[in-house]
Specification:
The protein contains 5 helices and 3 strands, in the order H-H-E-H-H-E-E-H. The protein is an alpha+beta fold.
Length: 109
């Protein structure tokens, strides 16, 4: 059975926020740091993890695991080419929504 990848991304609420954050850092983000960034924005660890899996399943993100000098494994999440393209479009939508919001605020005052 073929899955609807867009529907898979709808399930976890943080997927788009993560994709936008990844677009700011082309080299990728350490998962631990990503959890901290998302936590500061009110997104819980479970939502981050399920969104991360959904982004990878959709081919929008990928993970690399690297050993550091302390026998720890660092997991780096980054966008794929397709993920970068989607993030670029999301940034355009975000910009439009910001302009709409500013126009509504101007009309209220």
């Amino acid at each position: 059975m073929k899955t609807d990848l867009l529907r898979e991304l709808d399930e976890p609420s943080a997927a788009m926020r993560i994709l936008l954050e990844l677009s700011k850092t082309p080299q990728g983000i350490n998962i631990t740091i990503l959890h901290g960034i998302m936590s500061a924005r009110g997104v819980g660890r479970t939502a981050v993890d399920s969104s991360r899996r959904a982004l990878i399943a959709a081919g929008l993100a990928e993970e690399d695991r690297m050993k550091n000098g302390k026998n720890k494994t660092l997991t780096i999440l980054s966008t794929t080419f397709l993920g970068s393209e989607v993030a670029r479009k999301l940034l355009e939508v975000q910009d439009i929504m910001s302009k709409v919001s500013q126009n509504q605020s101007a009309r209220i005052h």
